[in-house]
C-alpha cells in the first residue's frame, strides 16, 4: 500500500546533516527531522497509554528539548535514538502526572505496554469506522495480540532504523530481529487462521 | 549509525505486513496535524549562543506524594512531576544551574494560571523574558532587581522557559519545564 507521506530516504535525509543544517537555522532541514520522527514519538507516547493531549505535550516537549540542546548534541548521527529516549522519559513523567490526577498507578519505567490502537476519540467516529472497515482485518488482528506485541509492531512500522526501534523498546539492537519476527508471525497467524 | 540504512538494518524494510500495520495505526490513531505544526514551529525557540541552565531541583508538596512512583534509571535528577503548586499549599520550587549563576523559581497558583517569583544568585540585574509556546515570543519581560529578584503574575500553565540577558551581553535560558 502506497503511503503518500512516506519520506524517500536519501542523502538529503541523513540525520547528522539535517541536525547540522537545523543548527544553522535552516527551517526546511528542521521540518524534515520533524516529519521523519514525529509519528514515531507520538506512537511512543501512546504506548504509555497517554491521552491525546498528554501525548501531544510529550511530542512538543521532546522537540523543544532538542532545540535547547541542538548546539551541543554529541552524536548528531544518533539524533533519532536521542529523540526516542527523550520521548520515553517525557512519557513516563506525563504518565505519572496523569496518574497523580486520577489516583491510578502509573506504568512501570520503560513499560511500553499500551495498546497499539488506542480507543478512538469520540470526535471522529465516522472516519474511524471507515478506517476500521478498510483496515479492519489488520486492526482486529493487532488488537487481539498481547500488548507488548502490539506496541512493538506499531513502533517497528514507524521507526526509521533498528537503532531507534531498540531505543524505543529498551532492548538490545541484536534482539530486535527475532522479537519482531515472533510478533509478525503471531499477527500473520491471526490474519490467516 | 545511519548511512542510508546500509549497515543499519532498516526496520522498515517494507515488509508488506508491517506496511499494513503502519497504515492501520496511521488511520486509527493519527498524529494530530496541530502536534506536527507545533513541532515544526519549535525551532523558533532556538537561542544561538545562549547558555543552558539545567533543571537541578524540583520540590513541592506533591513531589512527596509522588515519591512512591518507581524512579526509572532513565529518570534524571528531577523528581517533581506535579503541575503548578504543591497540593498541600506549599509552593513548588525549581532550581536551575548555569555555569556562574543559580536560578531559583517559586511557583504558586492553581487552575490555569501561575505566579512566579524568581531569584538569581549571585544577584545580577538581568532582563528576564518568559518563553511559552502559547505566548508571543519575548513577552512578558521584566527586570531583576538589585537583589536578583523578579516576578511574573498570571502566566498560563504549560511549558515554559526563562531567558536572561545579563549586563555583559551574554544570555542564559532555562531548560523547558511544565508549570
TrEMBL record, chain A:
Location of region: Disordered: 97-121
Keyword Ribonucleoprotein belongs to the record: no
Keywords noted in UniProt: DNA-binding, Sigma factor, Transcription, Transcription regulation
Molecular function terms from GO: DNA binding; sigma factor activity
Pfam family, one: Sigma70_r2
InterPro entries associated with the record: RNA_pol_sigma-70-like, RNA_pol_sigma-70_dom, RNA_pol_sigma70_r2, RNA_pol_sigma_r2, RNA_pol_sigma_r3/r4-like, WH-like_DNA-bd_sf
Domain RNA polymerase sigma-70 region per the UniProt entry, residue ranges: 33-99
Any single GO BP term: DNA-templated transcription initiation
Protein family: Belongs to the sigma-70 factor family. ECF subfamily.
Protein name: RNA polymerase sigma factor (Sigma-70 family)
Native source species: Actinomadura viridis
Lineage: Bacteria, Bacillati, Actinomycetota, Actinomycetes, Streptosporangiales
From TrEMBL, chain B:
Stated name of the protein: Uncharacterized protein
Origin organism lineage: Bacteria, Bacillati, Actinomycetota, Actinomycetes, Streptosporangiales
Amino acid at each position: 500500500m502506497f503511503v503518500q507521506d512516506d519520506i524517500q530516504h536519501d542523502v538529503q535525509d541523513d540525520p547528522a546533516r539535517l541536525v547540522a543544517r537545523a543548527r544553522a537555522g535552516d527551517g526546511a532541514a528542521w521540518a524534515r527531522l520533524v516529519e521523519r520522527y514525529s509519528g514515531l514519538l507520538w506512537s511512543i507516547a501512546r504506548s504509555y497509554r497517554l491521552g491525546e493531549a498528554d501525548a501531544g505535550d510529550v511530542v512538543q516537549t521532546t522537540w523543544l528539548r532538542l532545540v535547547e540542546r541542538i548546539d551541543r548534541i554529541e552524536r548528531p548521527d544518533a539524533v533519532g535514538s536521542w529523540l526516542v529516549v527523550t520521548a520515553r522519559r517525557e512519557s513516563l513523567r506525563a504518565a505519572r502526572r496523569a496518574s497523580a490526577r486520577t489516583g491510578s498507578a502509573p506504568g512501570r519505567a520503560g513499560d511500553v505496554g499500551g495498546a497499539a490502537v488506542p480507543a478512538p476519540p469520540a470526535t471522529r467516529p465516522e472516519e474511524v469506522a471507515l478506517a476500521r472497515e478498510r483496515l479492519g482485518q489488520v486492526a482486529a488482528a493487532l488488537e487481539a495480540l498481547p500488548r507488548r506485541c502490539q506496541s512493538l509492531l506499531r513502533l517497528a512500522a514507524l521507526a526509521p532504523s533498528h537503532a531507534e526501534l531498540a531505543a524505543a523498546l529498551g532492548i538490545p539492537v541484536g534482539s530486535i530481529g527475532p522479537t519482531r519476527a515472533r510478533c509478525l508471525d503471531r499477527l500473520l497467524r491471526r490474519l490467516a487462521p | 549509525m545511519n548511512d542510508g540504512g546500509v549497515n543499519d538494518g532498516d526496520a522498515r524494510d517494507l515488509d508488506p505486513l508491517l506496511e499494513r500495520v503502519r497504515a492501520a495505526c496511521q488511520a486509527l490513531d493519527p498524529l494530530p496535524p496541530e502536534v506536527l505544526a507545533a513541532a515544526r514551529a519549535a525551532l523558533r525557540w532556538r537561542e544561538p549562543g545562549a547558555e543552558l541552565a539545567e533543571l537541578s531541583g524540583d520540590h513541592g508538596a506533591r513531589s512527596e506524594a509522588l515519591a512512591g512512583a518507581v524512579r526509572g534509571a532513565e529518570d534524571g535528577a528531577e523528581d517533581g512531576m506535579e503541575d503548578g503548586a504543591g497540593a498541600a499549599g506549599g509552593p513548588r520550587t525549581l532550581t536551575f544551574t548555569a555555569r556562574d549563576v543559580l536560578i531559583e523559581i517559586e511557583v504558586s497558583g492553581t487552575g490555569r494560571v501561575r505566579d512566579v517569583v524568581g531569584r538569581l544568585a549571585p544577584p545580577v540585574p538581568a532582563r528576564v523574558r518568559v518563553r511559552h509556546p502559547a505566548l508571543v515570543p519575548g513577552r512578558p519581560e521584566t527586570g531583576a532587581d538589585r537583589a536578583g529578584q523578579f516576578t511574573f503574575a498570571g502566566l498560563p500553565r504549560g511549558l515554559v522557559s526563562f531567558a536572561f540577558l545579563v549586563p555583559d551581553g551574554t544570555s542564559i535560558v532555562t531548560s523547558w519545564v511544565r508549570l
